[in-house]
Amino acid sequence: MGGGNGQKSRMARERNMEKAKGAKGSQLETNKKAMNIQAPKGVTLCLNKVILDISTGCRGIQAMEASNKKAVNRDAITEEVAAAFAESNVIPERYYRPDEVNAGIVVGYDDDEAYELPVVDMGRLLDPELAGAEIAKLGSACRDWGFFQLVSHGIDEQVVNEMKDSTARFFSLPLESKKTVAVRENGIEGFGHHYSRVSGKLDWAESVILVLFLILFQVQVAVDLNSDALDKFSVEMTSLTMRIVGFMAADLGVEQEALVRAFRDSRQNMLLHHYPPCRLPDKVIGITPHTDGLSLTVLLQVDDTPGLQIKKDGRWFPVRPRQGTFIINVANILEVLTNGAYRSVEHRVLIHARKSRTTVVMFHDAHIDGMVQPIQEVLKHNGAEARYRSIEKLEYMKGHFSCKVCMQTFMCTTSEVKCREHAEAKHPKTDVYQCFPQLKK
Ligand SMILES: O=C(O)CCC(=O)C(=O)O
């Protein structure tokens, strides 16, 4: 890159750093506020109180839980479930899903066609001389794969290690302790199974879902999950997200602010997953194929057990775990914000026969003044028509979850044509309008 460009990149980088610092500050403040809330006695009360006090995003979830009974189906982990996980010689009917495991071709690591999930280097993104080429790499990863691995990310190793340790420690606790933060009936947050679907089949996993800020407090009171580690990690993940999004804006040819502002002060959800090993791994599924509902997902793998698979051109590509990286993926809202330039791609988790797998996943939300819609600047830059209609955030969330019930993705509710074709093909006997109320007849 020439000197002029180099200087521009340097200035952009400095602006980026300032913004990241700003994000850190405001998030820490909010965290502190959350921690200062007087502790009510019961866990449920605690959840409710913080939901009401912290952010509209959380209120949205609460309203959705009330209005959309069982739209998100999470079940408590019982002694029987824990015993099934421990034994795994005989798979209980509710976990038995060999057809789903075998649906689609899996590209082997050793197949002729050598592949590796694109690698993006934060060090190079931040280097004015190398930024141009690396931004192009980031852009093509988001267009072609919807996923990339981030190396040289610059996140404090101690923060990452504490998060890993804390998560591993939590899942190693006796069930009795983990149940003190169990998911409530019809609820989303807390410890339980990952989503079960209309089929009634359950994922071979135990997970904790945290809508940021609120459960930190609850978990600190209830069990040995290090809330300080969560707090620091969450702050780091916000700054990292802001930095990545700034580079995405550069790739999309718009001002950094056009995309960054959609993420600013937005909710962040954290999921901790533990996938126990299963002696019959081709009979169970760790996470059903899905796309992510929010905007940008950052995944940290605690160990080196493989399991994540990404769909590309109709085939499943297993991700090879790589030390010191984060796996980043475009989620549904970012696909809409970029008017489909970046793709939110289906992925799933399969189970290992002997080794357990643990991950920490941060989901970052975004919206444009409360709406989910393509960014004007992106449309202008490309002289393109909006491919997605504008939808209110709460409507979006309802649509996203009702789609989950139908094992569909949110794109169904924003891109009507895609939805109708998709729904009719997958559910020939279903009234698609009842299934997706957002569709226009
Ligand atoms: O644990 C993983 O590898 C993937 C998790 C995931 O896809 C999710 O939480 O939505």
From TrEMBL:
<feature type="region of interest" description="Disordered">
    <location>
        <begin position="1"/>
        <end position="32"/>
    </location>
</feature>
<dbReference type="InterPro" id="IPR026939">
    <property type="entry name" value="ZNF706/At2g23090_sf"/>
</dbReference>
<protein>
    <recommendedName>
        <fullName>Fe2OG dioxygenase domain-containing protein</fullName>
    </recommendedName>
</protein>
<dbReference type="Pfam" id="PF14226">
    <property type="entry name" value="DIOX_N"/>
</dbReference>
<dbReference type="Pfam" id="PF04419">
    <property type="entry name" value="SERF-like_N"/>
</dbReference>
<dbReference type="InterPro" id="IPR005123">
    <property type="entry name" value="Oxoglu/Fe-dep_dioxygenase_dom"/>
</dbReference>
<comment type="similarity">
    <text>Belongs to the iron/ascorbate-dependent oxidoreductase family.</text>
</comment>
<dbReference type="InterPro" id="IPR039438">
    <property type="entry name" value="At2g23090-like_Znf"/>
</dbReference>
<dbReference type="GO" id="GO:0016491">
    <property type="term" value="F:oxidoreductase activity"/>
</dbReference>
<dbReference type="InterPro" id="IPR026992">
    <property type="entry name" value="DIOX_N"/>
</dbReference>
<dbReference type="GO" id="GO:0046872">
    <property type="term" value="F:metal ion binding"/>
</dbReference>
<feature type="compositionally biased region" description="Basic and acidic residues">
    <location>
        <begin position="11"/>
        <end position="21"/>
    </location>
</feature>
<dbReference type="InterPro" id="IPR007513">
    <property type="entry name" value="SERF-like_N"/>
</dbReference>
<keyword id="KW-0408">Iron</keyword>
<dbReference type="InterPro" id="IPR027443">
    <property type="entry name" value="IPNS-like_sf"/>
</dbReference>
<dbReference type="InterPro" id="IPR050295">
    <property type="entry name" value="Plant_2OG-oxidoreductases"/>
</dbReference>
<dbReference type="Pfam" id="PF03171">
    <property type="entry name" value="2OG-FeII_Oxy"/>
</dbReference>
<keyword id="KW-0560">Oxidoreductase</keyword>
<dbReference type="InterPro" id="IPR044861">
    <property type="entry name" value="IPNS-like_FE2OG_OXY"/>
</dbReference>
<feature type="domain" description="Fe2OG dioxygenase">
    <location>
        <begin position="266"/>
        <end position="366"/>
    </location>
</feature>
<keyword id="KW-0479">Metal-binding</keyword>
<dbReference type="Pfam" id="PF12907">
    <property type="entry name" value="zf-met2"/>
</dbReference>
